[in-house]
Amino acid sequence: MSTRRSPKPSRRDKSARGEARVLSITATVGGRFVPFIEDKLNQALGLIPRAPLEVSLALVNDARMSELHEQVMGIPGPTDVLTFELDHGPRGHVISGEVVVCVPEARRRAKELGHKLEHELLLYALHGILHLSGHDDRTTPAYRRMHKTEDRILTRLGVGAVFAAKEEKV
């Protein structure tokens, strides 16, 4: 198994509060998408209030995601994205977290919906970061709000609305 890390394993940008922000990406699959995702997520982090100061993103295969999904949620099989809160600040917000994205799941959905795999991967990564930033999608109003936020950010990044495009095709 080969692992590809982002060219700059820990890029430091400034948060809106002037604190250093670190994004690191590890890819056991989908390594060719790391530069695109890294660039877009670094931009996105500046657009998200209460975004963690440190985010680790792992791009994994079905087997690894299935293992994590079973271990953490008790559900067999892969899922699209899992998030893990690693550290909290004095006010309880997440300051460090990990997002795990399943590349084969993104590939299946992108093919099914007829859009780019890199956009689906970015959507999943952004979704995880929004969870770490306090967003929730467990109720219908929260679900709508979160996915509108995703599409608003993706549009600002020049990618366009990915989730809304999914909804139209379903």
In short:
With 170 residues, this protein is of the alpha/beta class. The protein contains 6 helices and 6 strands. The chain has helices at 34-45, 62-73, 103-113, 117-132, 140-156, 163-169, and strands at residues 4-5, 11-14, 20-27, 54-60, 81-88, 94-102.
Outline the secondary-structure elements.
Layout: E1 4-5, E2 11-14, E3 20-27, H1 34-45, E4 54-60, H2 62-73, E5 81-88, E6 94-102, H3 103-113, H4 117-132, H5 140-156, H6 163-169
- Low confidence ranges: 6-12
Instruction: Give the number of DSSP strands.
Output: 6
Structural class: alpha/beta
Mean residue pLDDT = 89
Element-by-element helix/strand order? EEEHEHEEHHHH
State the helical fraction: 40-55%
How many helices in DSSP terms? 6
Distance between the termini: 35 Å
Taking the sheet with the most strands, its summary is:
6 strands, mixed
Strand content: 15-25%
| Overall morphology | globular
Q: What Rg, in angstroms, do the CA atoms define?
A: 15 Å
Structural write-up:
The protein has helices at 34-45, 62-73, 103-113, 117-132, 140-156, 163-169; strands at 4-5, 11-14, 20-27, 54-60, 81-88, 94-102. It has 170 residues and is α/β, with parallel strands linked by helices. Strands 1, 2, 3, 4, 5 and 6 form a six-stranded mixed β-sheet that branches. Strand 5 (81-88) and strand 6 form a beta hairpin. The model is unreliable at 6-12 (pLDDT under 50).
Structural features:
170 residues; alpha/beta; 6 helices; 22% strand; globular
